[in-house]
Write a structure and sequence with these properties.
- The protein is an alpha+beta fold.
- 34% of the residues lie in helices and 24% in strands.
- It has a five-stranded antiparallel β-sheet, with helices on both faces.
- Strand 1 and strand 2 form a beta hairpin.
- Helix 1 crosses helix 2.
């Protein structure tokens, strides 16, 4: 059996360290994914499915060379959730996504980390565009997308999640030209 080595880069923002997910993060994810708070990301789900979900997130890095980072608050070292780049088989397009733990909601962490993720996608990976798939009832995620300069593009029937909204991020060229205050 061959296991391919891969590296997950660490990024930093003013308040966050974006790092690889680790075993210690799984307890937070299991608790979150078991709750109704996870309704927009496939939950609630039992602990064994939550573990498999996180393993899939980590495996995405090995298969695609990009993925979700764990968010660690610099000030406290606390796990805040995950934000990153996503494009599993069958997905509509390459996506920028975010899933925060309830204790991190409403503090700007999703926007801050998504800006860093998008900059990595555009500047390092060479993406020219990205979307975010958002449940129409998820007002908080729609607000994050708006703060990122993304705009509603269309509705899409996802086979697993039903009707979702596709939000288009400003292109790399638009951001380089000073749009979105050059990454905010």
């Amino acid at each position: 059996m061959t296991v391919t080595a891969f590296s997950i880069p660490t990024l930093e923002t003013e308040r966050l360290i974006l790092r690889a997910l680790c075993e210690g993060d799984i307890a937070f994810e299991k608790a979150f994914l078991a709750s109704d708070d996870a309704r927009f990301v496939g939950g609630p789900m039992p602990p064994h499915r939550a573990w498999r979900s996180i393993a899939m997130v980590i495996g995405h890095w090995a298969l695609r060379g990009f993925g979700f980072w764990a968010l660690e608050e610099k000030k406290t070292g606390q796990y805040m959730g995950r934000v990153g780049l996503w494009y599993p088989d069958g997905w509509l397009e390459r996506e920028i996504g975010w899933t925060l733990m309830p204790h991190a909601w409403g503090k700007g962490f999703a926007t801050e980390a998504a800006i860093a993720s998008r900059a990595h996608a555009y500047d390092v990976l060479g993406w020219d565009t990205a979307i975010s798939q958002i449940d129409p009832a998820n007002e908080a995620s729609r607000a994050v997308a708006t703060r990122l300069g993304a705009s509603f593009e269309k509705h899409h029937e996802d086979p697993d999640f039903g009707m979702i909204e596709i939000w288009r991020h400003p292109s790399a060229a638009d951001l380089m030209a000073g749009g979105m205050e050059a990454y905010a």
